[in-house]
């Protein structure tokens, strides 16, 4: 099964809650469907409360947590999958 990964998604705080994140993720869904990709994968920082709430609201399912180096610092990441 082919999996597409969204590498990074960030909306500046002044522009949050205007649907921009949802539009960007919907575009990722459209691209995945166009290429017959059935699963979308992405990571978020565990302490990103707003981002994690958004990802769960759009249907992302938490599949794991991991610690990885981000900008030279250990960061706890939450991994999401979404079947399309």
Helices and strands in order:
Blueprint: E1 3-6, H1 20-34, E2 39-45, H2 49-57, E3 61-70, E4 73-83
The run of helices and strands is EHEHEE
Most strands sheet:
4 strands, mixed
Percent of residues in beta strands? 35-45%
State the strand order across the main sheet. Answer: 1-2-4-3
**For the CA atoms, what is the radius of gyration?**
13 Å
Number of strands: 4
- Which ranges are low-confidence, i.e. pLDDT below 50, for 5 or more consecutive residues? none
Summing up helix and strand content along with how strands pair, one would put the structural category as alpha+beta
The separation of the N and C termini measures: 12 Å
Number of helices: 2
Helix proportion? 25-40%
List keywords for this structure.
84 residues; alpha+beta; 4-stranded mixed β-sheet
Outline the structure in words.
- The protein has 84 residues and is α+β, with helices and mostly antiparallel strands.
- Helices cover 29% and strands 38% of the residues.
- It is built from 2 helices and 4 strands.
- It has helices spanning 20-34, 49-57, and strands at 3-6, 39-45, 61-70, 73-83.
- Strands 1-2-4-3 form a 4-stranded mixed beta sheet.
- The two termini are 12 Å apart.
- The mean pLDDT is 95.
Short overview:
This protein is an alpha+beta fold. Helices cover 29% and strands 38% of the residues.
């Amino acid at each position: 099964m082919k999996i597409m990964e969204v590498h990074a998604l960030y909306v500046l705080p002044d522009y949050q809650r205007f649907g921009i994140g949802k539009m960007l993720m919907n575009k990722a869904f459209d691209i995945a469907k166009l290429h017959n990709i059935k699963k979308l994968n992405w990571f978020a920082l565990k302490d990103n409360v707003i981002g994690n709430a958004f990802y769960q609201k759009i249907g992302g399912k938490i599949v794991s947590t991991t610690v990885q180096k981000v900008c030279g610092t250990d960061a706890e990441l939450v991994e999401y999958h979404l079947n399309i």
